[in-house]
Specification:
Elements: E1 2-5, E2 8-11, E3 16-22, H1 37-50, E4 54-58, H2 71-88, E5 93-97, H3 101-110, E6 114-117, H4 127-134, E7 138-141, H5 159-176, E8 182-185, H6 194-202, E9 215-216, H7 222-228, H8 236-248, E10 253-256, H9 259-272
Parallel strand pairs: 3-4, 3-10, 4-5, 5-6, 6-7, 7-8, 9-10
Antiparallel strand pairs: 1-2
Helix pairs in contact: 1-2, 2-3, 3-4, 8-9
């Protein structure tokens, strides 16, 4: 299985790591740590040296309760830093985490390699056509509601069945638009209870029936720190444990805050294959 990132083929037969670069002041773990050009450059360099294949840049917080940003707000946070990163790291596969089609289009014009959409196209229905026009990989995530409302007593008859149906519908629509590279993200923590998150993870192997790469984003999230009654700052060991399980279930990409530790998990599991 491969991804075509603007002419660069990424082989997913060995799982890859996507490093998180949050430009937000209010993300649940690292808000405000990298929202200047110098800090963002240093963190990007660090993650690349540690073995990240992708760098995912987000300017809009998606923590529970967060308000949606306007295009103008997101642009002001995103593009001054993104422009510099693209100059300094011209061969890096940057992903932009956005639900706005105009942000995605501008980022792709500048040379970004893929788009990561937490809404699966439900916030801005023009986004899928932008992906089709540029023929870049698209991370389609499952989220019920918006970040502001998603954790208001989420209920499902069967979370796995509903997600498989959701992704089957989304991939069919995207294939109709001739989008070829679709990455599925179950959206851990986005409109799910702790029990829902673990039900998804236990059944992650079922998602291979959709014949798309699977990305897992559990890094330091509440399914770890609330389950263990600790803080996000202490959730690295739990993150590594769940990364190991996700890889054993066939995950293709891990989206992480801690690149070096994730790379080590991949390398050790590869040694056992």
């Amino acid at each position: 299985m491969t991804l075509n990132c603007q002419g660069k083929l990424v082989d997913l037969s060995v799982p890859k790591i996507m490093g998180i670069l949050n430009l937000t002041p209010d993300s649940f773990y690292d808000g405000g740590q990298f929202n200047s050009i110098d800090l963002a450059v240093k963190q990007t360099e660090k993650m690349l040296q540690e073995g990240a294949t992708f760098i995912d840049i987000g300017a809009a917080s998606s923590r529970p309760g967060a308000e949606l940003l306007t295009v103008e707000q997101e642009s002001q946070r995103m593009f001054p830093i993104l422009n510099e990163l693209l100059k300094i790291f011209p061969n890096t596969l940057f992903s932009v985490d956005t639900y706005h089609s105009s942000i995605a289009r501008s980022a792709l014009d500048k040379g970004v390699a893929l788009i990561n959409d937490i809404s699966g196209g439900s916030i801005d229905n023009k986004l899928h056509q932008i992906i089709a026009n540029y023929q870049v990989p698209y991370v389609c995530m499952h989220m019920r509601g918006t970040p502001k409302t998603m954790q208001e007593e989420p209920k499902y008859h069967s979370i796995v069945e509903e997600q498989l149906s959701f992704f089957a519908e989304k991939t069919a629509l995207l294939h109709q638009k001739e989008v070829n590279d679709i990455i599925l993200d179950p959206g851990f923590g986005f409109g799910k209870s702790l029990e829902h998150n673990y039900e998804i993870l236990k059944n992650l192997h079922q998602y291979h029936s959709l014949k798309c790469p699977i990305m897992v984003g559990v890094s330091r999230k509440s399914l770890i720190y609330k389950k263990l009654n600790i803080s996000p700052e202490r959730a690295l060991n739990g993150t590594t444990s769940l990364h190991t399980f996700a890889l054993q279930q066939g995950a293709h990409i891990l989206r992480v805050h801690d690149v070096s530790e994730a790379v080590e998990v991949v390398e050790l599991l590869q040694a056992l294959n």
